[in-house]
Amino acid sequence: MKAVILAAGEGSRMRPLTFTRPKVMLPIAGKPILEHLLLEVSAAGITEFILVVGYRDEQVRSYFADGARWGLKISYCQQTRQLGTAHALKQLEKQLQADFLVMNGDILAKSADIAALAASSETTLGVFEASDPRRLGVLETDGSRVKRIHEKSANPPTNLANAGLYFFTPRIFAAINNTPLSLRGEYEITASIQMLIDSGLAVGYRPLTYWQDVSYPWDLLDLNASMLKSLSQRICGQVEENAVIRGAVEIGEGSRVRSGAYLEGPVIIGKNCDIGPNCYIRPATSIGDNCRVGASVEIKNSIIMDNTKIPHLNYVGDSVIGQNCNLGAGTKLANLRFDGADITAGGVNTRRRKLGAVLGDGVETGINVSLNPGVLIGAGSRIGPGAVVSGVIEPNSYIG
């Protein structure tokens, strides 16, 4: 059986992080979202994949290549124009002559659920119970069968939400080839499935025991913290005398933790990093490869991507920092409003009391910069010494 993973989109709600990478390549607990999904699918016994790519596809292709590093077989389909799920699958009709799985590349599921779905004998949708299904596609059911799929209904008939995880037989292609363009300007697979139902074919559904998606940058922090709870101790780098390690900490090859550093797990530090001296890295923090964390720096519940430097007198709390960033001495990322209210980021109420900043790739700050809670800074921006920054900063801006 083959698994088709849809990984062509940008993920505009994840900006500024997706200005320079596809959403599926955003890291959680030291691995891209897509890698976590591939590993779960392969653990379900499926080793042949077709990745549908589009936006900045070279990053997906270069990272995963042919899949040999994971013992997998990976091929690619280029979706130059993202015209919907059905449009993506239509390009693969000749390659999918047997039953197959389809899933969105920005979701997380467990291998047991995937294996159970793969054992289906008819078109079957993975579903989960949503607390607020109004923003999702929901299923109207009749016993074990799907009767109708409702997209983003103000009054959804159930709380069974479409998880973006499907089992298909080749019969789906007859419906795909007749699927009309939706009001959103896409050829949607849910419309194709509804055509199967309306033609009298049985379509089933299977509840998932675990499902997560990532909509906004701050969702990465919750999933990162959750995944790190199962982290095991693994120290491949050098830890100097008088450095303190508490709890589960993973340190990659070539990394050095200098004297006086205090690491309180769960924490992941990638390869070839330079940590300390005299810094404090608190739980639920993931640091990528080739990073520098220097003296008198405190980092808490954050994701720091590759090649980023946080070298002097910095505080980073509840933040996501992209690749190739550099924080000047004394730069502070505030993570709590003075009035204690929920933090708004990019006009969205995050429903979080604590959230720092989200920095795109290549952001640089001067000395003594203050970033207020919920600030979003576009890739390539430069923040001058002493600046106090709030709101949304567009890519390649200069704030004096």
From TrEMBL:
> What region holds the Mannose-1-phosphate guanyltransferase C-terminal domain?
264-372
Its EC number is: 2.7.7.24
Pathway per the UniProt entry: Nucleotide-sugar biosynthesis; UDP-N-acetyl-alpha-D-glucosamine biosynthesis; N-acetyl-alpha-D-glucosamine 1-phosphate from alpha-D-glucosamine 6-phosphate (route II): step 2/2; Nucleotide-sugar biosynthesis; UDP-N-acetyl-alpha-D-glucosamine biosynthesis; UDP-N-acetyl-alpha-D-glucosamine from N-acetyl-alpha-D-glucosamine 1-phosphate: step 1/1
Q: Which Pfam families match?
A: GMPPB_C (PF25087), NTP_transferase (PF00483)
Q: Which UniProt keywords apply?
A: Acyltransferase, Multifunctional enzyme, Nucleotidyltransferase, Transferase
Entry superkingdom: Bacteria
Q: What class of enzyme is it?
A: transferase
Nucleotidyl transferase domain sequence ranges: 2-228
Question: Catalysed reaction(s)?
Answer: alpha-D-glucosamine 1-phosphate + acetyl-CoA = N-acetyl-alpha-D-glucosamine 1-phosphate + CoA + H(+); N-acetyl-alpha-D-glucosamine 1-phosphate + UTP + H(+) = UDP-N-acetyl-alpha-D-glucosamine + diphosphate
SUPFAM superfamilies from the UniProt entry: Nucleotide-diphospho-sugar transferases, Trimeric LpxA-like enzymes
Query: What are its GO biological-process terms?
Result: UDP-N-acetylglucosamine biosynthetic process
Please name the GO terms that the record assigns under molecular function. Answer: glucosamine-1-phosphate N-acetyltransferase activity; glucose-1-phosphate thymidylyltransferase activity; UDP-N-acetylglucosamine diphosphorylase activity
Q: Which family does the entry's similarity section mention?
A: In the C-terminal section; belongs to the transferase hexapeptide repeat family.
Q: Which NCBIfam families match?
A: Arch_glmU (TIGR03992)
Identify this protein by name: Glucose-1-phosphate thymidylyltransferase
Which species is this UniProt entry from?
A: Dehalococcoides mccartyi (strain ATCC BAA-2266 / KCTC 15142 / 195) (Dehalococcoides ethenogenes (strain 195))
